[in-house]
User: Fold this.
Amino acid sequence: MTHSIAKIFQTRRGDNFALHDRFLNSQMVKVLKTIGYDRVYTKAEGPYLYDDQGNQYLDLLSGFGVFALGRNHPTVKAALQEVLTSDLPDLVQMDVSLLAGLLAEKLVQATPEPLTRVFFCNSGAEAVEAAIKFARYTTGRSRILYCEHAFHGLTLGALSLNGEEIFRQGFGPLLPDCVPIPFNDLAALEQALAEQPTAAFIVEPIQGKGVNLPADDYLPEAARLCRKYGALLVADEVQTGLGRTGRLWAVEHWGVEPDMLLIAKALSGGFVPVGAVVMTAQIMDKVFNRMDRAVVHGSTFAKNNLAMAAGLATLTVLEEENLIANAAQQGEALLDGLRPLVAKYEFFREIRGKGLMLALEFGKPHSLKLKTAWNLLEAANKGLFSQMVTIPLFKRHRILSQVAGHGMNVVKFLPPLVITSQDVAWIIAACDAVLADCHQVPGAIWDLGKTLAGHALKARKTA
Assistant:
């Protein structure tokens, strides 16, 4: 064999950062080197990553939710290998795929009862783009409501529904008739629906940026208001779906039946990009209402055999390994283990979440020395304290995590659904140790804080 990926990895290992610096996003390379995340990973299994020094890391990012099953799950690998060795016809286009039909059947069986049709695509952003088009065509209206601080993707239509200005800045003009409203505010939603005909309200059941949870009546009342004013309710479950919150779909926590449900990330099994819109028959039949409209919306690589096989294998693993129940159990154990730290440490304000989608929120302490140190960080860059938690979690305790959004002091945990009670104990002990260090002023972590503040101020001057 003249072309060997294994040989390429062996001979070019360690060239990652030089290649990306030269040919891809050099700013990302600078970020990783600045915060000390410049590791060379050589292996991945379940919830763990391994670097070229043999160190094991617990991955609490899970590829922003892609690796719900963990990495390199054997059942998904076996399904993909079987597709590759079966010489199946694929993407014939003037044909209909058996595997796509089977995955659609499984998704319809797993979603709320009114949702009986499926459109496949390649990503969450593509699912959002499809939802925008389908809602506009079905209702004959153009206006889309979305929530402040929402994240729905970075393609132009999806970006038009993003509630964070940092992602939108400089990319306008975006789609017209996309209107933001506060999350978890029923009065604002009804006012927006009443003032002008609206095609759809698109909402994350739990907001990914900040892990903001709704009040118990918010989503059921939002569904009622959408029906009252003739708007479609679109649940963006790209991150919250497929067991992430301890239920198959997050909307199940509140008994909500949306008109469209958007899926991606975890459906891939961690291997092949795939997205889906599960919708009512009314929407599908309205958009594709004549034979000459059979191709009015599509995606070239959607429904490819590898993606469909990955989706089928993912649903099988979720069921056979009871991963949704494990997400609920381990998520509750994490909440129970981290709650006592809120009373123990001044900086720690709240632990919240559902299942294995959790947020640790930090805020200004009350004692003078700590408050002074906090103010210096916040003056340099709002939300900088969170980096003083994530960086030592990574460098000292080998736990990979992320800040939950730009300019906020919230750290987000999004572990694979396969984590164990031992992993939960690892997380709790590491958080306890890092927060204890944060209360030592002066100390090594505050030396890190000064360095981060210096970089932030330098970046501000450059900008």
Summary: The first strand starts at residue 41 and ends at 45.
